[in-house]
């Protein structure tokens, strides 16, 4: 990969700029440029796309995205120590990399992006789930992005693709599968990272559906799903009793037994319940 862009290997970049990973920022750096290019390829054909990347760090995935032909990359990085390394990449790809210093939770990237847009990121562990939920729950659908290709802890990735009846099935599965096609496309051992995290990681690819799988009011569905899974050991009639005085009637109308627990309820049933309560 360094032969493709003429930049030094990532270990050298990290040593030059003294970029030890910070636990407080949820950083674990991927140093294998073959691997970062492989992750970039999981995002599909990027040649006509703007790509949003969160937490590029020393720029391994950034280099992969640019080498794989992304039209433009917008990278949002909170750690100012990484900016000189990213500036070196921008110099090799004139006009194709824009770096914004700041917190991805506070920045609206849309002013800097031109559709079609993909999001591809080795997300910092401490903000990954929150960002994913934001991207999955805008008021208007389809969203500003076409695909999400995101690295998570393996356990979080499994929660996104989980099916009813499994331990991993919960709020994330319902929100992700309601509006996207989600699948795990790559697994990575702890040793792929510096420093190695305690757990394995996985890359999830989510493609936005033109319309949600089943009609439902987003806010009502979110409220129902949150209430159901916040008390997942309780029966549905107990977990949801605060949502409506006649909750059992609503459950029956949606085809849900009041004695079932949240993990037994399908996405279609959750949507039917949300429509009934709306």
Which term fits the overall shape? elongated
**CATH architecture heading of the largest domain:** 3-Layer(aba) Sandwich
- Quaternary structure: single chain
- Runs in which pLDDT lies below 50 for 5 or more consecutive residues are none
Helix coverage percent: 25-40%
CATH superfamily of the largest domain: Vaccinia Virus protein VP39
Distance between the amino and carboxyl termini: 53 Å
Which strand order does the major sheet show? 4-3-2-5-6-9-7
Q: Please, what is the average pLDDT?
A: 94
CATH class of the largest domain: Alpha Beta
Largest sheet: 7 strands, mixed
Alpha-carbon Rg, integer: 21 Å
* Count of spatially separate domains: 2
What structural class is derived from the secondary structure elements? alpha/beta
The CATH topology name of the largest domain reads Rossmann fold
Q: Name the helix and strand elements from N-terminus to C-terminus, one letter apiece.
A: HHEHEHEHEEHEHHEEEHHHH
* Count of helix runs: 12
Number of strands: 9
């Amino acid at each position: 990969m360094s032969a493709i862009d003429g930049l030094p290997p990532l270990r050298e970049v990290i040593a030059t700029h003294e970029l030890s990973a910070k636990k407080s920022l949820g950083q674990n750096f991927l140093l294998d440029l073959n691997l970062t290019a492989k992750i970039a390829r999981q995002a599909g054909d990027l040649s006509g796309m703007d790509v949003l990347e969160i937490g590029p760090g020393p720029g391994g995935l950034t280099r992969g995205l640019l080498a794989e032909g992304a039209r433009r990359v917008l990278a949002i990085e909170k750690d100012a120590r990484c900016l000189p390394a990213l500036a070196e990449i921008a110099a090799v790809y004139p006009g194709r990399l824009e770096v914004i210093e700041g917190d991805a939770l506070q920045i609206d990237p849309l002013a800097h992006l031109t559709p079609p847009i993909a999001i591809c990121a080795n997300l910092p562990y401490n903000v990954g789930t929150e960002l994913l939920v934001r991207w999955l729950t805008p008021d208007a659908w389809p969203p500003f992005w076409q695909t999400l290709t995101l690295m998570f802890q393996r356990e979080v990735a499994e929660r996104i693709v989980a099916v009813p009846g499994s331990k991993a099935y919960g709020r994330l599965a319902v929100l992700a599968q309601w509006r996207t096609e989600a699948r795990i496309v790559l697994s990575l051992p702890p040793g792929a990272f510096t420093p190695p995290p305690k757990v394995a990681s996985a890359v999830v690819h989510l493609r936005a559906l033109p319309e949600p799988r089943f009609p439902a009011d987003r806010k009502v569905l979110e409220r129902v799903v949150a209430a159901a899974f916040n008390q997942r050991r309780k029966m549905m009639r107990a977990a949801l009793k605060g949502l409506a005085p006649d909750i059992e009637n609503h459950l029956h109308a949606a085809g849900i037994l009041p004695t079932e627990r949240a993990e037994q309820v399908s996405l279609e049933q959750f949507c039917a319940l949300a429509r009934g309560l709306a």
